[in-house]
Amino acid sequence: MRSLNEGIALVARSFASDPTEEPLWDFACECGRADCREWVELELPRYEEIRHGPGSVLAEGHTTFLPIGRRRSAPGSVGACAGTSSPSRASSA
Fold first, then answer.
1. Half-sphere exposure of 12 (CA within 13 A, CB side)
2. For the whole model, what pTM was predicted?
3. 44 is in which domain, residue-wise?
4. Number of helices and strands in the chain (H, E)
């Protein structure tokens, strides 16, 4: 899903015209589960912040999918699953 999100970001950058307005873009959840079809609304700068860090875009309540025994939650994630007030749902881990 990361390559899909990179394409979305590329399109979003091409539409950026007014720096005072940051529209929300739909990015695919990068949890890695084959059956995940969730989307995450993010402003482009927030997506780029996630991308430049070690994190992944994750839907609320999702974690990075790893084989059993190696799963990890998304510490520092943004959204209700992390107990913050931000409506955006993305991981910075």
1. 22
2. 0.67
3. 2-82
4. 2, 2
